Amino acid sequence: MEADAWYRPGTVPAVVSDPINWLLEARVGLVVTVFTLLLGSVVGLVWHAVAPQVGVVAAVNGSAAATKPLIGDDLWLALLGVIAGVVCVLVLRLLAPHVADGPGALVGLALGGFLGMLVAARVGHLIGHQDLADIVRTNFPKGGQRAVDLVLGYFDFTVRAKAVLFAWPIVSVLLSGIITWIRALNQPTPRGASPYPGFS
Description:
The protein has 200 residues and is mainly alpha-helical. The chain is built from six helices and no strands. α1 runs parallel beside α4 and α4 packs antiparallel against α6. The radius of gyration is 25 Å and the shape is elongated. The N terminus and C terminus are likely disordered.
């Protein structure tokens, strides 16, 4: 059967144009990604400020309670990633609602969210790493750099559960998809029109 045999005899096959402006979507994706990267550095600063700090001196002396913040570090970053994902979606919906439902915005939220978490983890690590190194040097001056490296190998301020890095992109993509779905449900198809372009 020929490809256009399903058309009625004597009619001209409908030409369906691509409704997506791919150049615009690429620009949207780039802008959203850059915005999330900038926000990622802020998240990293906040993460270091609010996450529980390991009592390095007590931990080195054998206190198990002093090491509990190691778990809290990852949980706090995950929570901040969730909040950042929601913020990104809301900002996008408020500032550019006409492009928020497009594929460019979705790619930007996913890719930018993941990169934003990497930036946040790196910024927080660099600040926390230096703080802990200074504490070790102050309290164990005779150990030198070897003591610093040994202690930080166990208690450094860093991401241990790598899965938390996906909190931001997953939340932002899911929330954006839910909003898009709800908006589609609230836009009834005109009477007599086909919901599929080019097949009315």
